[in-house]
Task: structure prediction
Amino acid sequence: MLFDLRSRGRRRTVQVIYIGLAVLIGAGLILFGVGTGSGGGGLFGAFTGSNQHSGANGNAVTSQVKSAVARTKKEPHSAAAWANLINARLSAANSIGYDTTSSTYTKAGKQQLTLLTQAYTRYTSLTKTPSTNTATLAAKAYTQLGNWKTASATYQAVLGGQTGDNRIHTLECVALTSYAAKDDRVAQLAQARVLTLLPTKSVRKQVKTELEQAKTSTTVVTESC
Result:
């Protein structure tokens, strides 16, 4: 029997086996996170990204997106189902794909925004009267993706359903995205309309300066819209 320790050679063999087991167990704890309750942690987890978005927010967002996708598969001709997916995609982009340090969307965030715009294309094929809120979310996504022309067109489409400050802000975004798209005619028309809605000369001057910055820099566009 292996564990009959009366033989000196067998005692040596058992010592070697135990040392080997200790090394294997230690490696498992360090490299794979075995027994730590981390569900795939350890050094290998860090290298492979197995812990990416493993926090409560990431899991919740993933669950929200999965649920929304499942609904569109179950109800492919439901505009409401696709609108729900658009909301879920934006939540995912903001929660797991936004860098607060640089105030920009990461690669993962832009992927969610791209999927959002695809869902919006499907959504608009199912309804003749897109929701103002849903269209605004799509316009924001187009803006963050640098699709200036489509962003401008989408912002213009929602103007009819807005009043007050919301309408002013949307007009500003029409001007900004149009300047970024090098469509000065639409930009100037939107800018002129915005300026007539502002209360004082000083405010009008300030807003005009900010809007026209979009002619040379798109940073103001993504930060404002």
Observations:
- The mean pLDDT is 80.
- Residues 8-32 form the longest helix (25 residues).
